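#help-structures

NK: newbie question. if I give both the sequence and a SMILES, will the prediction place the ligand too? trying with adenosine-5'-triphosphate
OV: yes, paste both and it writes out the complex. here, I ran yours:
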Amino acid sequence: MTYKVEMKNITKIFGSLVANDQVTLQVKPGEIHALLGENGAGKSTLMSILFGLYQAEEGEILIEGKPVSIQNPNDANRLGIGMVHQHFKLVDTFSVLDNIILGAEETKNGIIQYDHAIEKLNHLISTYKLNVDINAYVKNITVGQQQRVEILKMLYRDANILIFDEPTAVLTPQEIHELMNIMRGFAKEGKTIIVITHKLNEIKAVADVCTVLRRGKKIGTVDVDKTSIEELAEMMVGREVSFLVEKEDIKRGEPIFTVDKLNVGGRGKHSVKDVSFEVHRGEILGIAGIDGNGQTEMVHAITGLIPITSGSVKIQGSDITHSSIRKKYERGMSHIPEDRQKHGVIMDFDLQSNLILQNFYQKRFQKHSFLKFDVIKKHADLIIDRFDIRSERGPKTILRQMSGGNQQKAILGREISREHEMLIAVQPTRGLDVGAIEYIHKQLIDERIHQKAILLVSLELDEVMNLSDRILVMYEGEIVGEFDPKKTTMNELGLYMSGAKREK
Ligand SMILES: Nc1ncnc2c1ncn2[C@@H]1O[C@H](COP(=O)(O)OP(=O)(O)OP(=O)(O)O)[C@@H](O)[C@H]1O
Ligand SMILES: [Mg+2]
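OV: that's the protein plus ligand as structure tokens.
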């Protein structure tokens, strides 16, 4: 039988790091093939080689049995290969239409022929139910819609080998459901799909086969039907993984973080209305809600990223409503932001500098305005070791060159090991592998044991249910209910999250 895609003995080396070590991947036509592996295992690298972004040091690529040379994404496009990247690559200030035709414009006498393009696009949109306004600017549409633009971009170029790099990490449960249906539709039509995901239940739901990578090496390819979630997890991390969070009862202490009648302006759903709550020492307060119901704005306002319209925020009794961000951190706040690349790190700084972003001015890191690099490196080494942050050059690695999951671990490590009294964790496990999630959950539980106050904002209802001591549901900018996770169900929370029910 001829494979649609065959990558044979691919080796890719970055400096001293072997990102892909003799990896072979065989994908049949019309198959949905999952690619699974820990953070930094080499998944994105392997797919970037197939898409022509990187060149392999060794190995061979065959498409429909014929050896091909893929030097750049244009070569990949010609071979029918398209890719939706882990972090989207759209031009914010262009319209959807212009983004899609960018680089594939049809021109006549130097003028772009829009009519033809619009006709083709509308056809694709209705065939695959990829609803999006083609005249809207990319900066004004949601992340879920941006992903549809990326998918349309592949289809517009007539791709029939579709690569998805962690497509569901940024989607809501509803959008995930829709995407799965879209993928099934593609496969039914004979398109071949390779999908990278950390979510084992998604693999179970859509994939036919799954190839597992660990530390750059291929561990094996299995039939998804015949393999349990536990077996997949074990193949991936090389040990058994516990999916249950063990949490002992802790006596909660006094409230140390208080938000009172917080209002934040904004349009409709994007505003925050009269939100009040307290987080106690030794408590994890979970905020549940569907994406876009004011959670992001609430956290941005509390942490100082956008202005507060009215209300107050206090930490350990002192009012920080209008304090500078530095003051907020000094008063004991830590923050794992939702958008790690925008608000969590500086992509072109190295890891050790990123680990002192809020503390560089302190005496222990500088003397007479000169940074003490030996101390900074030692500080980084400790965090790297404790949080198992993997990268090629340790403290000196530029953040941009680290895998997505390891960037996230770096932020977590920094925020948890800083001196702090309360931690705001927004989507702390987004994009992490199951082993890392297990670890991060343990760290959050540990924070609780150490009598910190934790505010957990997550779109993963499982996560909120498993970790929280108390849950507040947010809907259209308001808190619509308070729940004890031991006494509620996913269904009940779902009703409040969708606005079908609310407490008086
Ligand atoms: N351009 C680069 N320069 C140097 N090292 C790199 C580069 N790109 C990736 N790496 C390294 O190669 C390894 C594999 O990275 P890759 O992004 O393929 O991992 P991944 O399996 O996609 O992980 P994740 O699940 O976290 O996205 C990582 O250790 C990463 O730091
Ligand atoms: Mg990746």
